[in-house]
């Protein structure tokens, strides 16, 4: 049976539910389709569960370090993974049910459960139902990529999704991929008490960041006993009589690492392969990401793509910003653009790495005259007092316009402190606005004006 709506939204990720809220408030009749877990990746298998588990791992780490703070401990610290998971699951469940009940109770919104598939540019099939609308919004997200590496079919492996249900501590976790997903789980599991080896095919961790950032991250992880195997080309997975082995063609080290579990953390792929996009004529790139313009319109009029599936961002805040762009442009006659967004993200190892705007490498490659300022976290009083003085911060400024081009903070509280730099960048203000600011003592942010007062030309 065909049902008519003003809009169909597919996927209850970080953009879809809020868009449903705005469209229904504006009087639109909306069909909402979700096939699995309301809240999508972030709430169920991404940010929320991982940061809950990072918090448990941090508690274990601080407990082990009690002596450093004068806290006496008589027993060795151990971690009860079942309790860690129960805590994580309770936090996730609250968020998931919150999203679902919000959508189900929304006036003018009808929720359909099942896999949505295009039948034509205006028609979506969900099981027996055919939904029709002039406006269709895709927020279908992505899933862990499983590359066709040799042996992948011969060994049981974990992904960022399945590891979240592991209620026992592996004796030795091998993490393949040394970036966002891989490093957060690597440090977390090391702190839970596992041996951990990270295998990365490039020559350094977080290979998209500057070299000094990669070195700083490496030092932090190695200081906790995490083993690293870099330059790992020609990886081969093997079943080693009950254990798992990774054959490596690295520049140094033993050609094989043997462990008890393998986590594949080598990127994500968009959920666009079973959407029937060709029935609507919606174009994708060669990796399956939906092609969009600066206002998130696809190649077909009346169809938009938001969040990870459009390849224009892979974070919760970028997906949510996609919702804001589409809603403001459609309902408020706005002219918001994806290109107005300043890239910003944080990698939640501990201490975290926050990055905004251009990296130093990108500034150098642009050839523009620039200034650079850096400060080690050992100069940040608050970090020293908290016993968390690993890492450093740096900032880059355009020597002519005096505007901030980018910054990185690898250190305690960096994920929060970066926002004073981000806000100055959004304000379009020169760096002197921030260097003359009086920030609270003792905070990590208080060193940012000091750093900006002693910039040197980028050699
Ligand atoms: C382990 C991990 C940790 C992360 N941590 C962070 C973090 O700390 N900070 C951060 O900013 N980002 C983080 N991310 C990234 C973040 O989770 C995503 O960028 C974010 O969830 C954006 O997702 P989305 O809105 O594009 O869609 P998703 O949240 O992926 O939602 C898509 C939804 O669409 C549904 N769907 C797909 N196809 C169909 C279909 N055909 N029919 C019906 N429904 C369909 C899916 O079931 C899903 O519910 C993390 C990711 C991972 C994997
Ligand atoms: N804190 C956060 O905001 C957060 C946390 C987790 C994930 N995420 C999002 O999810 C995305 C996916 O994360 P990810 O870490 O899976 O992917 P990624 O693309 O960020 O990193 C994958 C890493 O694996 C390496 N790699 C790729 N193929 C390999 C192979 N065959 N062997 C060895 N190494 C290989 C790459 O060189 C890279 O370092 C992130 O880019 C980010 O957008 C964000």
Automatic annotation (TrEMBL):
The keyword Phosphoprotein does not apply. Gene3D superfamilies: 3.30.390.30, FAD/NAD(P)-binding domain. The keyword NAD applies. Its cofactor is FAD. It comes from Tunturiibacter empetritectus. The lineage of its organism: Bacteria, Pseudomonadati, Acidobacteriota, Terriglobia, Terriglobales. Residues 6-319 form the FAD/NAD(P)-binding domain. Residues 346-451 form the Pyridine nucleotide-disulphide oxidoreductase dimerisation domain. NAD(+) binds at residues 177-184, 200, 267. The active site is at residue 441. Keywords: FAD, Flavoprotein, NAD, Nucleotide-binding, Pyruvate. Disulfide bonds join 42-47. Binds 1 FAD per subunit. This is Pyruvate/2-oxoglutarate dehydrogenase complex dihydrolipoamide dehydrogenase (E3) component. InterPro entries: FAD/NAD-bd_sf, FAD/NAD-binding_dom, FAD/NAD-linked_Rdtase_dimer_sf, Pyr_nuc-diS_OxRdtase, Pyr_nucl-diS_OxRdtase_dimer. FAD binds at residues 51, 308.
